[in-house]
């Protein structure tokens, strides 16, 4: 039992090293010597670098500017830019991003372009091969080719690239390259619009590329099609609170505006084909309750091969976790104003995903968090509106079993005819090693990921050219809900819930993006590639999930299913969405509050009450009521009896609950996995019970509360038992586990003794990260902490904007890091202490910020 709990504490969060180990290794690698203490901030290799100092007042000559641009910085490094033209604004934004985040930007474009090994050496080869196969760079090139050169997106991308290249020219002239380039001898190439679109694609991949259909293939083959379908349903088993509850319209299926960038030879298969013939968009949308489809051994073998290869890749290459909270309120409790809170959840890292700044020009006056490598503000506010994002979690990745014939090795069968597999050849440059040639095969569905078992292709909405940047630029300049909503018509992938509040007291949420609809079949697993289950269109924009000024005066989006069970379109299975506990907690707190304030919203962002525990704890205590407990077990039970369901770092009850629940999940499901020989080791998401398939949690909650004699509680081949018996066994194991980790006294089993949070450095060097520190929270609290006992995942940014009835804004934000990616800079992690304490800092527009503490003038080059 103790081993089972250890395994499930890995379940509820196997400790993972962070995303991408990017460049310098403390132990040395290839031609890079071991750095040891040289990696310490403020010393060693960092000491002489230009950016290790706090910038002073400067006058800089920047190629690409038409007129001078004023830049000011607060003492904390928050930049504010004032430009006399939009082009100059984005030149300045690109320059600042490269000045303070060049290494991060270069590594992100290398990741998406399949060129990490050129910097990393052989350790980057697996990632490069996968990314070149998936095709982020191909999509970026296709997007740029489809971007009108006179439109605002092309102009912004071109200007931004000019700013980045101005910084590269400076470094080439002064020789003050960031340390990684000096150590490796590699230099970053000049920046292009395609590079910015590649960086955008990397974040899209993190938020929407999904391997769950492959996991479902393994489950269906192991557990059987009927049990897999029952335990992993389309609709959630537990009660949900959608922010768009209906009633709903069915407007048919809309074309997805752009063809598949990976299927140039076949021309895509949605919208208009390359030969000009219209796609078949008359097929009905996929049913919300598709027929059970068996998955054979060949599909399982293909899934095993792909999942095993993906297990070698950084977690950031696929969407593994529900991402983010956002909520809005208006009406009398909000003082007839409007308030917004948002905290996007991502893998934490130093430097952060975000670079905070204010931008002002004739076309823009916006402040918030930008993505280094991309123009505009992704999350933030302007003088009239504010917004934040959460992932919709809809299914945007589909795997296809292509029909092949050994006598036709270079072809596949689709729509009644044989078609050639398109081939693209690449060479992966490897620092310190020989170049690696690869060949990527493309079908009408997308790139081939394996030919083992079955030839499997992947169709992912992130591989369709989009005009997301046009949408974002229009959103940055919007002044009301109609302008905000219209801007998002161009948004495609990833589908996001955009939460909104404005200075006139209005609130809303809308979830634009591509919601693929297939002609027929069960998209929970791999689909036949012969044409009958192709993507035939998308949900029309006017009926995507959305709500505006509801009578409740509240809207909450925390990755729950955004619509009710009668929504007429398929958006994905239950396992795609969050189980709903964060949503429930937020709604309960907001509904019960007498007033809504910015301070109250900030406090709620840091809430660690476990709503799942509130629901389940009475059943556990009931199960233990007449049990014969040891004195130690009785002490643990008493602590749970008095516990308020807060996952506070100082709470013994929190540790007991977490150990119990992990053991409970394992106690119920592990015997089924063992009996069916489910190959969990090949699934990078673990079948690890959470990262557990959310559907299992929803089922377990429902069975425990309403169906305690469900057959799932009885292990295969064993005597029948109930949920209470499984709970008692799990509780016994939890006490054993905590005794082994923390000693004999339950009163000393504080959650923070076994649970910690860390913000790792992208280099992987512990001395360049922040933490680990004892921490509260869990996967089900508003202040989320994933990955189990050491969490490197959570709120990558916290923002609150309160609009008064007079239209003035109280806007604040913070993220766990700093504005510079240079470890010796005082701006490397100076904002992190505020984040750890749950405090927010001012989020000002350029005019509100004023001149700041440090002034730069970026002058047009003479």
Nutshell version of this structure?
This protein is 32% helix and 19% strand. With 862 residues, it is of the alpha+beta class.
Helix content: 25-40%
* Main β-sheet description: 11 strands, mixed
What is the typical, i.e. mean, pLDDT?
Answer: 88
Instruction: Walk across the major sheet and give the strand order.
Output: 1-32-2-3-7-8-9-10-18-19-23
Helix vs. strand class: alpha+beta
For the secondary structure, the number of strands is 32
Overall outline: globular
Number of helices: 23
Sheet-strand content, in percent, reads 15-25%
Features:
globular, 862 residues
Task: Describe what you observe in this structure.
Helices cover 32% and strands 19% of the residues. With 862 residues, it is of the alpha+beta class. The protein has a domain of 164 residues. A hairpin with a 2-residue loop joins β9 and β10. It is globular. The relative contact order is 0.18.
What's the SSE blueprint?
Elements: H1 2-11, E1 58-62, E2 69-73, E3 79-82, H2 86-113, H3 117-120, H4 125-134, H5 136-145, H6 152-174, H7 179-184, H8 193-208, H9 212-223, H10 225-231, H11 297-310, E4 325-330, E5 338-343, E6 345-347, E7 355-360, E8 365-370, E9 379-382, E10 385-391, E11 397-405, E12 408-414, E13 417-420, E14 422-428, E15 436-443, E16 446-450, E17 455-460, H12 468-476, H13 481-487, E18 496-502, E19 507-510, E20 516-518, E21 527-528, E22 535-538, E23 546-548, E24 554-557, H14 581-592, H15 598-605, H16 611-624, H17 631-641, H18 652-676, H19 694-706, H20 723-742, H21 751-754, E25 756-759, E26 770-774, E27 790-791, E28 793-795, E29 798-803, E30 809-814, H22 832-837, E31 841-842, H23 846-849, E32 854-860
Parallel strand pairs: 1-32, 3-7, 11-21, 25-27
Antiparallel strand pairs: 2-3, 2-32, 4-5, 4-24, 5-29, 6-28, 7-8, 8-9, 9-10, 10-18, 11-12, 11-17, 12-13, 14-15, 15-16, 16-17, 18-19, 19-23, 20-22, 25-26, 29-30, 30-31
Helix pairs in contact: 1-18, 1-20, 2-4, 2-6, 2-8, 5-8, 9-10, 9-11, 12-13, 16-20, 18-20
């Amino acid at each position: 039992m103790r081993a089972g709990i250890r395994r499930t504490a890995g379940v509820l969060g196997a400790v993972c090293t962070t995303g991408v180990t990017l460049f310098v290794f403390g132990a040395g690698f290839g031609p890079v010597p071991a750095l040891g203490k040289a990696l310490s901030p403020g010393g060693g290799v960092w000491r002489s670098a230009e950016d290790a100092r706090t910038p002073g007042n400067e006058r800089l000559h920047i190629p690409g500017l038409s007129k001078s641009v004023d830049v000011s910085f607060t003492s904390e490094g928050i930049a504010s830019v004032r430009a006399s033209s939009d082009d100059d604004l984005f030149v300045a934004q690109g320059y600042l991003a490269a000045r303070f985040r060049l290494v991060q930007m270069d590594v992100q474009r290398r990741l998406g372009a399949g060129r990490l090994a050129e910097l990393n050496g052989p350790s980057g080869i697996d990632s490069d091969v996968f990314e070149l196969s998936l095709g982020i760079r191909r999509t970026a090139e296709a997007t740029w080719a489809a971007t009108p050169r006179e439109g605002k997106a092309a102009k912004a991308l071109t200007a931004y690239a000019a700013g980045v290249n101005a910084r590269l020219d400076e470094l080439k002239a002064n020789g003050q390259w960031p340390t990684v380039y000096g150590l490796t001898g590699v230099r970053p190439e000049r920046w292009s619009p395609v590079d910015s679109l590649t960086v955008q694609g990397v974040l899209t991949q993190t938020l929407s590329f999904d391997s769950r259909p492959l996991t479902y293939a393994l489950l269906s083959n192991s557990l059987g099609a009927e049990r897999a379908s029952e335990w992993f349903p389309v609709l959630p088993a537990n009660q949900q609170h959608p922010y768009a509850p209906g009633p709903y319209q069915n407007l048919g299926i809309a074309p997805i505006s752009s063809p598949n960038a990976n299927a140039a030879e076949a021309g895509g298969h949605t919208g208009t084909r390359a030969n000009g013939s219209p796609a078949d968009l008359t097929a009905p949308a996929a049913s919300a309750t598709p027929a059970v489809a068996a998955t054979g051994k060949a599909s399982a073998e293909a899934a095993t091969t792909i999942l095993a290869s993906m297990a070698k890749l950084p977690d950031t290459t696929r969407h593994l976790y529900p991402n983010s909270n956002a909520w809005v309120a208006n009406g009398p409790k909000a003082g007839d104003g409007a308030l917004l809170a948002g905290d996007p959840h991502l893998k934490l890292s130093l430097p952060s995903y975000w670079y905070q700044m204010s931008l002002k020009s004739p076309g823009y006056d916006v402040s918030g968090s930008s993505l280094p490598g991309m123009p505009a503000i992704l999350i933030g506010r302007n003088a009239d509106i504010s917004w934040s994002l959460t992932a919709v979690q809809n299914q945007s990745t589909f795997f296809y079993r292509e029909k092949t014939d050994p006598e036709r090795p270079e072809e596949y069968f689709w729509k009644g005819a044989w078609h050639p597999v398109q081939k693209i050849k690449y060479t992966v440059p490897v620092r310190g090693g020989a170049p690696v040639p690869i060949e990527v095969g493309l079908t009408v569905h997308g790139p081939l990921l394996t030919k083992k078992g079955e030839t499997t292709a992947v169709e992912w909405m992130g591989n369709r050219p989009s005009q997301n940047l046009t949408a974002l630029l229009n959103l940055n300049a919007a002044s009301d809900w109609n302008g905000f909503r219209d801007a998002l018509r161009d948004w495609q992938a990833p589908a996001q819930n955009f939460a909104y509040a404005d200075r006139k007291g209005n609130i809303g949420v809308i979830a634009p993006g591509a919601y693929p609809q297939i002609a027929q079949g069960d998209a929970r697993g791999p689909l036949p590639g012969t044409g009958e289950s192709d993507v035939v269109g998308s949900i029309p924009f006017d009926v995507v999930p959305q709500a505006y000024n509801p009578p409740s005066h509240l809207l909450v989006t925390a990755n729950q299913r955004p619509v009710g069970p009668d929504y007429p379109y398929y958006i994905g299975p239950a396992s795609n969405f969050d189980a709903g506990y964060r949503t429930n907690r937020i709604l309960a707190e907001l509904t019960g509050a007498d007033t809504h304030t910015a301070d109250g919203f900030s406090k709620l962002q840091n809430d660690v009450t476990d709503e799942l525990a509130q629901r389940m704890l009475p059943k556990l205590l009931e199960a233990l009521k007449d049990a014969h407990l040891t004195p130690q077990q009785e002490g643990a039970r008493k602590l749970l009896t008095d516990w308020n369901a807060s996952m506070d770092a100082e709470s013994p009850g929190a540790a007991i609950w977490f150990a119990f629940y992990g053991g409970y999940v394992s106690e119920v499901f592990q015997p089924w996995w063992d009996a069916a020989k489910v190959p969990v080791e090949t699934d990078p998401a673990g079948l690890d019970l959470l990262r557990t398939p959310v559907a299992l949690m929803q089922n377990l909650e429902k069975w425990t509360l309403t169906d305690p004699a469900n057959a799932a509680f009885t292990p295969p081949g064993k005597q029948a038992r109930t949920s209470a018996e499984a709970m008692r066994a799990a509780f016994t194991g939890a006490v054993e586990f905590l005794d082994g980790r923390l000693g004999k006294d339950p009163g000393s089993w504080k959650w923070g003794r076994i649970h910690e949070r860390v913000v790792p450095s992208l280099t992987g060097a512990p001395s360049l990260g922040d933490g680990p520190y004892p921490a509260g929270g869990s996967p089900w609290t508003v202040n989320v902490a994933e990955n189990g006992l050491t969490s490197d995942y959570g709120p990558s940014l916290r923002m609150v904007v309160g609009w008064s009835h007079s239209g003035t804004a109280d806007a604040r934000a913070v993220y766990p890091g700093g504005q510079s990616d240079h470890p010796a800079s005082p701006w490397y992690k100076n904002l992190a202490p505020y984040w750890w304490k749950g405090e927010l800092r001012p989020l000002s527009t350029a005019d509100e910020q004023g001149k700041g503490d440090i002034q730069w003038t970026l002058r047009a080059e003479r």
